[in-house]
Design goal:
Layout lengths: L1 H5 L7 H10 L5 E3 L4 H10 L8 E3 L12 H9 L8 E4 L2 H10 L2 E5 L10 H5 L5 E3 L3 H7 L1
Parallel strand pairs: 1-2, 3-4, 4-5
């Protein structure tokens, strides 16, 4: 699994969303429960190492998502506020962390995710938005 994560391919539109947010001067944090060495390689593999203002990995927190600790830490480090924050994620842990932190969530549910997650179960966590491709994110985030 580690090797697949290191060479993970981006979904179409991800880079465009990150570039859009950069143009809007929005701060971006990557929050993951994966180990830092894998994430650093995956970011490098996809040429994304300069797209995030902050990267928090498994080693950086004691409590993982859906606990809101990691989101609150990111907001503090980026000097952000809950009203202007949104978490983009693909799991119940991501949506749950956003809900527990009191911020909006954007559930990314592409067709491929039906292999791992049931959309109806994910919707029970009340994501603020649900999208199936990243082009939909641009209108939500603007």
């Amino acid at each position: 699994a580690g090797e697949k994560l290191r060479q993970v391919k981006l979904y179409p539109g991800v880079k465009e969303v990150l570039e859009f947010l950069a143009k809007m001067e929005k701060k971006k944090a990557l929050i993951t429960s994966s180990p830092r060495d894998i994430i650093v390689e995956a970011l490098s593999y996809n040429h994304l190492q300069d797209y995030f203002d902050l990267v928090l990995c498994a080693e950086d927190v004691k409590k993982h998502k859906p606990d809101p600790d990691v989101i609150n830490r990111a907001l503090t480090l980026l000097k952000g506020n809950k009203e202007g924050a949104i978490i983009v994620g693909d799991s119940d842990k991501d949506v749950g962390a956003a809900k527990n932190a009191g911020i909006d969530s954007l559930l990314f549910y592409p067709v491929e995710n039906s292999l791992y997650y049931n959309l109806e179960d994910l919707q029970k966590h009340n994501p603020t938005y649900t999208i199936s491709n990243f082009s939909e994110a641009l209108s939500i985030l603007s």
